[in-house]
Amino acid sequence: MIALLGGLGAALFWALSTLCNSRSTRMVGAASSLAWIMTFGLVLGGGAVAIVRPVFHPSTADWWWLTAEGLGSAIGFLFILLALKVGKVSLAAPIVATEGAAAAVISIFFGEKVVAAVILGLAVIVIGVVLASTGEKSTSPLEAKARFETVLFAVLGAIIAGSSLYSTGQISADVAPLWRAMAPRVFGVVLIAVPLLVSRKLKLSKKALPLLAIAAVCELGGWISYAVGSTHSVAVAAVVSSQFAAIAAVAAFFVFKERLTRMQTVGVVCVIAGVTVVSLFSH
Predict the structure, then answer these.
(1) Which end of the chain is more exposed for a tag (fewer CB within 10 A), N or C?
(2) Helix/strand/coil for 247
(3) How far is the C-alpha of 238 from the C-alpha of 220, rounded, in Å?
């Protein structure tokens, strides 16, 4: 039950974060959105670390994996925000949710043995992404360009974020989950927020501020919720949390009046199904 609730909590948090990000990026841009989300997250996470004082005895290898995790998460998140800025939530979110599948592919590359169901799930995801990237023949060049960029940025974001997830899995138990959550936020602030602030290109508006704050809280809250759920069952927590894409897509249909073609809808369903299978059998 705890694994189910933890996964569901993560899915709800990340779905809300996705919806907020899709609006804030169009107000202040992807880079500024990332900078503020990571800054808010660093402050929140820092407060939690000060209160909880989690275990932190990293080895030399842990430091390398924390660096890889932080870089991958920050850069991957930037591409994800770019996808949400130029395209529809209902198209970008399901592709972004394949980051777990990307981590599985990296694991396979480095020799991890997986069951046939995972290979099948990965194949279904590829088919789904191809179908989701298609559109009506009557779409304008601008719509076609936006669709292509959405898929491209979402795929790149998922792959890079997937490498971050793989790196997280290599960190020893001597580094508590809360510290692992801090790494991406530290790199996001250092690599994105500080340069934007120094160059006076960091943007913020009154309308974007609450969206960015909510997104930051939800990103961190979702990660903690998943961490709690995964301590009882990684498979259940992973499968349920990955459904944030479906929740975000349905919410976007009602809130933003987004519409997809039949072919794109089939593609999105394939992606969600493939992600579910990979999450269920790769643990």
Answers:
(1) N
(2) helix
(3) 16
Please report, as a single letter, which amino acid is at residue 216. A
Q: Which tokens go with 271? A: 């992606």
The rounded distance, in Å, linking the Cα atoms of 63 and 216 is 25
Question: Residue 224 and residue 64: Cα distance in Å, rounded?
Answer: 22
Residue 114 pLDDT exceeds 70 = yes
Question: Are 132 and 264 spatial neighbours (Cβ–Cβ below 8 Å)?
Answer: yes
For 226-252, how does the pLDDT look when each residue is reduced to its tens digit (9 = 90+)?
878 876 776 677 778 888 888 998 899
3-class DSSP assignment, residue 160:
helix
Q: In whole angstroms, what is the distance from residue 267 CA to residue 283 CA?
A: 25
Q: Rounded to whole angstroms, what are the CA distances from 106 to 14, 103, 152, 166, 183?
A: 23, 5, 19, 7, 20
* Interatomic CA distance for residues 222 and 231, integer angstroms: 14
